[in-house]
Amino acid sequence: MIVTTVNVNGIRAAVKERSAENRGLLPWLEKTPADVICLQETRADDDQLAQALAPALDDGWHLASADPHLKGRNGVAVLSRHPITRALIGPGADEFAAHGRYLEVDTADLTVASIYVPTGEAETERQREKERFMAAVAARMKVLHGAGRDAVVCGDWNIGHTENDIKAWKANQKKAGFLPAERQWVTDLLATGWVDVVRAMHPDVAGPYSWWSWRGKAFDNDAGWRIDYQLANPTLAEKVVAARVERAELYALRWSDHAPVTVEYA
Predict the structure, then answer these.
(1) 175: helix, strand or coil
(2) Which end of the chain has fewer CB within 10 Å, C or N?
C-alpha cells in the first residue's frame, strides 16, 4: 500500500492555473503509484472538488471529501484506488464538525485520515482555536490507536516538531508552528505509540522539507518546513519500506507550495 499526502493549496488552481507545461495535479495523478492520496486545503465544496477531479474519477479513483464551512477555505479529501467503505467527517468535537479539517475513511484494510491543522497565531484566539482542534484530534487518535486496525493520519499539521524540521528554526521559536506547546503536543502523540514514519526513515537530518514559501528564493535554497506528516500506528509503521518527499526539480514545475509526501507500506 502506497500512501501520499499533499496540501494542494487550492484544488482548482492545482489542476488549472498551475497546469502549464504538463505540470499540475492531474498529470501527477496519472503517473503516481499511490494507492491512497490525502488532500488538504482544497478550498472547494464537494461539487467543485468532484468537478476538478473528474478526469481522475473517470479513471477509477474513489473520492471522499469534507468541504469547508467558509467559502474558499480549508477542505480535505481522500482519493483511493479501492472502494471507500466508511467515512467520518470531523475529529469528534462539535466545534470542528463542519470546518473541513478532518476526514477519516476505511479503504482496503486501512484506516486513513486526512488532516489540516489550523495555522494559528501566537497569543491570539486563532491559536486557542488551533489548540482546541489539536485536543480533539488527540482524542480521536487515541480511539484509532485502540481500534485494532492499521491506521495512518496524514496531512498538513502546521507544526515543525524539531529543529530538524525547520530551516530557520531560530527565527521561529516564538511563532505559531514552532511554539513549545505545539511541539510538545506532537511529542505526546508519539509517546502514545504513533510513529512519524518519514522521520523514522530519515533520522537526524534536516528535512526532508515539504513546504516552501512561494516568495523569494526559499524553494531554490531549500529553506523550508517539514510540516506534512504521516503518523502511523505501530503495526503499520513496521511495514514501512520507503518514504520520500516528491520535491519538484524546479520552482517553475511546482503546482503547490507543498510537495507530496509518499510512504510505501509493505
Answers:
(1) coil
(2) C
User: What cell was used for 159?
Assistant: 507544526
Instruction: Please tell me whether the peptide bond between 208 and the residue prior to it is cis, using omega within 30 degrees of 0.
Output: yes
Give the span between the Cα atoms of 204 and 210, in whole angstroms.
Answer: 16
Cα–Cα distance, 230 to 227 (Å, whole number): 10
Tell me how far apart the alpha carbons of residues 16 and 20 are, in angstroms, rounded to a whole number: 8
Closest among 139, 96, 117, 265 to 195, alpha carbons compared: 265
Contacts of residue 91, Cβ cutoff 8 Å, sequence gap at least 6? 101, 102, 133, 136, 137, 139, 140
pLDDT for position 69? 80
Q: Is 116 helix (H, G, I), strand (E, B) or coil?
A: strand
State pTM to two decimals: 0.96
CA 122 to chain centre: 22
How confident is the model at residue 21, as a pLDDT?
63
The alpha carbon dihedral of 169, 172, 173, 179 has a sign of: negative
For the domain covering 2-265, report its CATH number: 3.60.10.10
Measured between its terminal Cα atoms, the distance across the chain in Å is 6
The average confidence (pLDDT) of the chain is 96
Domain map (residue ranges) of the chain: 2-265
Using one digit for the tens of pLDDT, what is the confidence trace for 43-94?
999 999 999 999 999 999 999 999 988 888 899 999 999 999 999 999 999 9
